[in-house]
TrEMBL record:
<feature type="transmembrane region" description="Helical">
    <location>
        <begin position="45"/>
        <end position="63"/>
    </location>
</feature>
<protein>
    <submittedName>
        <fullName>Diguanylate cyclase (GGDEF)-like protein</fullName>
    </submittedName>
</protein>
<keyword id="KW-0472">Membrane</keyword>
<feature type="domain" description="GGDEF">
    <location>
        <begin position="355"/>
        <end position="491"/>
    </location>
</feature>
<dbReference type="Pfam" id="PF00990">
    <property type="entry name" value="GGDEF"/>
</dbReference>
<feature type="transmembrane region" description="Helical">
    <location>
        <begin position="291"/>
        <end position="309"/>
    </location>
</feature>
<dbReference type="InterPro" id="IPR029787">
    <property type="entry name" value="Nucleotide_cyclase"/>
</dbReference>
<feature type="transmembrane region" description="Helical">
    <location>
        <begin position="70"/>
        <end position="91"/>
    </location>
</feature>
<keyword id="KW-1133">Transmembrane helix</keyword>
<feature type="transmembrane region" description="Helical">
    <location>
        <begin position="160"/>
        <end position="184"/>
    </location>
</feature>
<feature type="transmembrane region" description="Helical">
    <location>
        <begin position="20"/>
        <end position="39"/>
    </location>
</feature>
<feature type="transmembrane region" description="Helical">
    <location>
        <begin position="103"/>
        <end position="121"/>
    </location>
</feature>
<feature type="transmembrane region" description="Helical">
    <location>
        <begin position="133"/>
        <end position="154"/>
    </location>
</feature>
<keyword id="KW-0812">Transmembrane</keyword>
<dbReference type="InterPro" id="IPR001633">
    <property type="entry name" value="EAL_dom"/>
</dbReference>
<dbReference type="InterPro" id="IPR043128">
    <property type="entry name" value="Rev_trsase/Diguanyl_cyclase"/>
</dbReference>
<feature type="transmembrane region" description="Helical">
    <location>
        <begin position="196"/>
        <end position="214"/>
    </location>
</feature>
Length: 761
């Protein structure tokens, strides 16, 4: 309750602060109205002015931002100018405005400093903004000087100090114009705090213009009405300081504006036209005035030329930066795939010269482990360091590129001996320990190499894209054979890739054309000689190629994500077949169906629901289905896979670990996952009777499984000698060619019907 109450109080405080700016603005408008009708004028001015000063000093802490210097300086400027405005009507009747000017002039200086601080904080002091501001400043200065400063200084019988002051304020206004323009070109104009601050500056200019007019008449104060713009300026300035977006005026967030955008032209064009309009209107009457107008126009023309040169230079720099970013990797600064393709095409187009064009394509073995263990920032540091090592180690004629993720490509021209030497350099360059996160890691590079001669370059298979594709193919051949090495591409690999693509396309059609079949191999009880279960195994009879073995198409299905469709088909068909056998009396009530499940299937959101639906549709008890997983699911599977296994066990199906002992066998993994049985891999069974080490491994698996209450199945049993050893070691369930290969449902029913006597083949 206390937490909710505290949160409500905090929300209430935020809402109060968000409303404060318009409450201040409302009070300021009311006070200005009272000032105009003559009600407590001095109090009205002091109240709003002091409130605006206080708002400027309080804004940083209220809105929780820093640095606070610019707002504090603006508050100090407001305090000095307020003092001068209050003193002016008091001291002018006594014949001197100097006491008021002693505060007003420092106020303008502080205001200039505050706006300069805003511009610096927002990085508004860039070349374009300064030139644009100077153009407007020169135009405004020319107008102010001609129309106000010179007439005020030309008044007869006037002390020099007052003439200087009369000329000083137009100068202040010109500088303020410069800073406001620079700030406007670097600020999101739609932000309320900036619009309020801009309104404040416009009102100050209007007020100064009014005082400049009476200054030409030799007066320093004429009526309280002249102070109305300043009173409204204080109102808007205080509201700007109190607005929540005030923090954005001190942030380094330059606004990306086009060099000659309409917004800039709308401000610049009047300033550019000012000297010429004055000339046409006949304002310059004396030689000095004509010199001022001519000088102002010349300076503006010069600034316009500088502005055009600056825009061209900026465009060239931006174009160069864009081209660099488009052709180089952001993380390492190395050429990216696009630039690498250009370099390869240039090399292939050159005369033969010295040797062939060699492409070395490699990625970092173990990079995923670094990302998963210490996060992507650690992976980025590793990539940068490997890129730097390659750049420092390889010869200048070799191009090093990063084409994505942890994939690098090196390209060079040379002889075969030089290429093989460089391949070893790359491997040696990657292998030294690299510190990432809290530890040092040792990674390796698996690499594929391909070469193209000048004669090959005329062939379509030797384009830049095809060379990188071939090198990529060779790299994956390296990974299959053993990491940390390299493989040189040959044409047979391309044919293998083409065959793989053909099989993938045919497999997609096979699912649609119902070409897949499910065969069954018995899991036999050694004591009774009768099957206790069967493993469902998918087979594919291609209409043209004939039988395609699962060892060929299952890996392709895994890589192409077709395994989910294949697995769903096998699961549904196997459960359906089990229901048919149960109904026909081919198998007993305790007979189970073992079905392989790929790691990818376990990550499918609806997999558990699909299993439950199949059981419900065909009326098969969940205890009569065992799902076989690989050891990699226990080791590499994430929370989704683990959650799916728990849900499946809760459903009632059994979970079996297939090919146990070939991967990362661990008692801890078996204890952590809801496993009910293990299948000893055929590689251990094949050595029984001849290898004592295989026998000890099987004995250890049986002992461990007994301790955990797991059922043990031995697969790949092909001889009676293997069967006898397994029986002696305590294994009761076996499958293998000793009892026959996997067969179609009718053949299985004929051989293993419940009323038939079973004998080993």
């Amino acid at each position: 309750m206390g937490l909710l109450s505290g949160r409500a109080e905090a929300d209430g405080g935020d809402r109060w602060r968000d409303r404060l700016w318009w409450m201040f603005a409302l009070v300021g408008v009311v006070a200005t109205g009272l000032y105009v009708v003559g009600v407590a004028q001095l109090l009205d001015f002091a109240l709003i002015g002091a409130g605006a000063v206080a708002a400027c000093f309080a804004s940083p802490s209220m809105n929780d931002f820093s640095p606070a210097r610019a707002w504090h300086t603006l508050g100090a400027a407001g305090a000095f100018m307020l003092t001068g405005a209050i003193l002016r009507p008091i001291v002018v009747p006594y014949g001197s405005a100097l006491p008021a000017e002693a505060f007003t002039v420092p106020g303008y200086v502080l205001m200039i400093a505050a706006l300069a601080d805003f511009a610096y904080g927002r990085r508004a002091i860039d070349r374009h903004s300064v030139i644009d501001g100077l153009i407007v400043c020169v135009g405004a200065s020319t107008v102010f000087t001609l129309l106000f400063a010179i007439p005020a200084m030309s008044l007869p019988d006037r002390p020099l100090i007052f003439s200087v002051l009369a000329a000083l304020y137009p100068t202040f206004d010109a500088i303020l114009v410069l800073l406001v323009v620079m700030l406007a070109f670097s600020t999101v104009a739609g932000r309320p705090a900036f619009r309020l601050l801009l309104g404040m500056m416009v009102l100050i200019f209007i007020g100064d213009l009014a005082y400049a007019v009476i200054g030409n008449q030799g007066e320093f104060y004429k009526s309280p009405v002249l102070d109305v713009p300043f009173l409204l300026a204080y109102t808007l300035g205080g509201a700007s300081a109190l607005h929540p977006t005030a923090r954005e005026l001190v942030r380094a967030m330059p606004l990306p504006v086009q060099p000659w955008s309409l917004a800039r032209l709308a401000v610049i064009i009047p300033a550019v036209a000012a000297p010429f309009v004055l000339t046409v209107a006949g304002a310059p009457r004396t030689g000095v005035e004509r010199w001022i107008v001519g000088l102002g126009g010349a300076v503006i023309v010069l600034l316009l030329i500088l502005r055009a040169i600056s825009a061209v230079q900026a465009n060239a720099v931006a174009q160069a930066r864009f081209e660099y970013q488009a052709t180089h990797d952001e993380l390492t600064g190395l050429p990216n795939r696009r630039r690498l393709t250009q370099i390869l095409e240039e090399l292939l187009a050159e005369p033969a010269g010295r040797g062939a064009v060699w492409v070395f394509f490699f990625d970092l073995d173990g990079f995923k482990f670094v990302n998963d263990s210490w996060g992507h920032p650690a992976g980025d540091r590793l990539i940068r360091r490997i890129g730097q090592r390659l750049r420092d180690t390889l010869p200048p004629e070799a191009t090093v590129a990063r084409i994505g993720g942890d994939e690098f490509v090196v390209v060079r021209r040379g002889t075969e001996a030089e290429a093989l030497e460089q391949a070893q350099q790359i491997v040696d360059c990657v292998e030294p320990p690299t510190r990432v996160g809290p530890a040092e890691v040792v990674i390796t590079a698996s690499m594929g190499i391909v070469a193209a001669t000048r004669a090959d370059a005329e062939l379509p298979t030797s384009s830049a894209d095809s060379l990188m594709r071939d090198a990529d193919t060779a790299m994956y051949r390296t990974k299959a054979a053993g990491r940390g090495k390299w493989t040189v591409f040959d044409a047979s690999m391309r044919r293998a890739v083409q065959e793989r693509l053909e099989i993938e396309g045919a497999l997609r059609s096979a699912l649609a054309r119902d070409e897949l079949r499910v065969f069954y191999q018995p899991i036999v009880d050694l004591e009774s000689g009768r099957p206790r279960g069967a493993e469902a195994l998918v087979r594919w009879e291609h209409p043209e190629k004939g039988a395609i073995g699962p060892n060929v198409f299952i890996p392709i299905a895994e890589e192409s994500r077709l395994i989910t469709g294949v697995g769903a088909f096998v699961l549904r068909d196997a459960v359906r077949q089990l229901a048919v056998w149960r109904a026909e009396g081919v198998v007993g009530d305790e007979f189970w169906m073992s079905i392989n499940v790929s790691p990818r299937q376990l990550t499918e959101p609806g997999f558990t629901g699909m299993v439950a639906e199949a059981l419900r549709t065909h009326g098969v008890p969940a205890r009569c289905v065992a799902l076989e997983i690989t050891e990699s699911v226990m080791v590499e599977g994430g929370e989704i896979s683990e959650g799916a296994l728990r849900d499946l066990r809760a459903l009632g199906v059994s979970i079996s670990v297939d090919d146990f002992g070939t991967g990362f066998s661990s008692l801890g993994y078996l204890r952590r996952h809801p496993v009910t049985s293990v299948k000893i891999d055929r590689s251990f069974v094949s050595g029984l009777g001849a290898s004592s080490s295989d026998e000890e491994i099987v004995r250890a698996v049986v002992a461990m499984s007994a301790a955990l209450g797991l059922t043990v199945v031995a697969e790949g049993v092909e001889s009676t000698a293997q069967r006898d050893v397994l029986g002696r070691l305590g294994v009761r369930l076996c499958q293998g060619w000793l009892w026959g290969k996997a067969v179609d449902p009718s053949s299985f029913a004929e051989r293993w019907s419940a009323d038939h006597t079973v004998k080993a083949l």
